[in-house]
Amino acid sequence: MADFDAVLKFWGPVEADYDNIGNMVLTRLFAEHPDTQKLFPKFAGIGQGDMAGNAAISAHGATVLKKLGEVLKAKGNHASIVKPLANSHATKHKIAINNFKLITEIIVKVMQEKAGLDAAGQTALRNVMGVFIADMDANYKELGFSG
Ligand code: HE5
Fold it and tell me: Residue ranges of the Globin domain (predicted)?
């Protein structure tokens, strides 16, 4: 699908700085949607002011973005990537689907600022994430998780 390539065109700056951009995504997710911080027991009690310098937040932000990079590069053939992700997020971490929609909008904004993601790229990223989230949701339903 053309949307995957349209986002990959802007992925270079993200890939070059997974830790910082990943930190920014999570820090902003927690600022704009404070309830999402509670989904991460490891991050309980970290205040907004301490997040930018927090290595654990950077490391997990990098993990999230690397996984999204894999999804982009799979260009739609991502069933084998989505399955274990859905399993862990549904069964272990108990992450409702709506959280993926929230993080999508944060990534759109952060990529706009840090990677120059333009209007067409933003639409493409929303489309790609829509496909990814629908596939996560299908797995959630199979697992009987009403996320
Ligand atoms: O599932 C895993 O590996 C296949 C475990 C590591 C991992 C987690 C954990 C990965 C690769 C991802 N997340 C990827 C990912 C891509 C996007 C769409 N995540 Zn994830 N997550 C993990 C997202 C989105 C997303 C939104 C939210 C609220 N994720 C979360 C939450 C979440 C949590 C709580 C964990 C457990 C690990 C942890 O707490 O690390 C600090």
Answer: 1-141
Give the C-alpha separation, 145 to 33, whole Å.
22
Angle between helices 55-74 and 18-32 (to 10 degrees): 100
CA nearest ligand 1 atom 35, residue: 93
Q: CA-based diameter of the chain, in Å?
A: 42
- pLDDT number for residue 146: 80
Looking at this predicted complex, what is its ipTM? Answer: 0.95
Q: Global pTM?
A: 0.96
- In this structure, which residue's CA is closest to atom 19 in ligand 1? 64
Instruction: Give the residue among 120, 122, 15 at the shortest CA–CA distance from 73.
Output: 15
Distances from the Cα of 95 to the Cαs of 1, 20, 22, 118, in angstroms? 28, 24, 18, 30
Query: How far apart are the CA of 89 and the centre of ligand 1, in A?
Result: 7
